[in-house]
Amino acid sequence: MKRIYSLRLRLTLIILVPLLFVAGATGLWQLNNARVTAGDVFDRSLQSAALAVTNDVALSGGDALAPNTRKILSDTSGGPVFYHVYAPDGVIVAGYATPPVGIPLAGDGDLNPVYFNAEYLGRDVRGFRMRTRMQVDGFSGIFTTTVWQDVAIRETFVEDLMLRSLITISSIITSLALIVWFGIRIGLHPLNDLQQAIDLRSGAVLKPIQRPVPVEVEGIVRTLNRLLGQVSEAMATQSEFISNAAHQLRNPIAGVLALAESVRSAPSDADMRERADDLVDAAKETSHLAQKLLTYERTKSISPTSAKENFSINDLLVGIVDSFRRKNADTVAVDLRIPEEDISVTGDRTMIREAVSNLIDNALKHGGSQLSEITVSLEAVSATTTIVVQDNGKGLTDAQIQTALQRFGQVSERSDGSGLGLPIVERVAERHGGGLKLHAGQPGLEARFTIAR
């Protein structure tokens, strides 16, 4: 199983890792910048020392250096500076007698100052040489002044500068890490509140979460509330179905059991066959009721996303009407009136077939003795399709229409129907974006079953 880290740790790493990378890059840049800066500072210090020495030699003839010059030489940028001054004839005028090894050679007329790297008494040094035309004690010509300093002093300075920068950057990163860690902890507090709200939900309590949440989790809460609503609706539907099934099947099942007992206790074969026929009829009625209950339950699962089948409503009506004609050819005429143009709809083909069949079956069962004709017609506009089932039977009053549309509603105490036919039709229509309307005719009843195209 893939390991999932905490959200707090993930956010902290996402924020700190780039910062550490930037800090590292900044540190490298700072190191290079420190080296360049230190080199420039030290080189300028050497140049200043050389100018001071040259000036004092010119004024004193090499006999003495001014106090300020000696101060510069004793501690320039953290360390002593060595020097010497040569006359045009190569005679040392002032300074240390032993020069560094590796001083660049200069031509007779070359007056350009030169920085160089050399070795002095086994140590690496950085030096500066300048050549100046001047007169000392009546002797004129080009005098050469050379100053140098141990390179280790520069490295110590750079290391000290880098250490300070490292301590500063580390302190900033550490402080920032603590701020991020505790900031995220405080920022995620609303999620803890949300978790507590979810923990309060159970199978008995599925109400939506109403408490304020951050914008970033509003989508999660919205989805969760929708799921809670769907679960609540499914549980209510299941409870309703169980209640309806238990209520409606109790009497038919009791009747089947009673008939079964009577068959077993029949005094003769003739009585047994008669009671067996009654048992079969009762079992069929019970099976029919159970099928209606299951159909009514299935209509609840129809949704715009699940009903995606595209089919010809003309062909569907032709098949339904032909089936009823074969069953009722001698009693009732079933007429079909559809346009020549083929009309296609998108929906649950099986449930639409069931709905239309229920309308025709309802007319056959409750049309009365004067029923002789049922007309099925089709009306289509740009957005909807309406199937009209009209009969010339006894019809229903407005009050009876309201009763018939209710679950298990019976308009007559002697009715042998399940009371679910019209509720099934109405729910199928609603699930397809339409509806069911019943109108008392003169005579008969008109049912208008409308669905969205």
UniProtKB/TrEMBL annotation:
Its main location: membrane. Residues 244-453 form the Histidine kinase domain. It is found in: Membrane. It catalyses: ATP + protein L-histidine = ADP + protein N-phospho-L-histidine. Keywords: Kinase, Membrane, Phosphoprotein, Transferase, Transmembrane, Transmembrane helix. Pfam families: 2CSK_N (PF08521), HATPase_c (PF02518), HisKA (PF00512). Signal peptide: none annotated. The keyword Cytoplasm does not apply. Coiled coil: none annotated. InterPro entries: 2CSK_N, HATPase_C_sf, HATPase_dom, His_kinase_dom, HisK_dim/P_dom, HisK_dim/P_sf, Sig_transdc_His_kin-like_C, TCS_sensor_his_kinase. This is histidine kinase. It comes from Roseibium album.
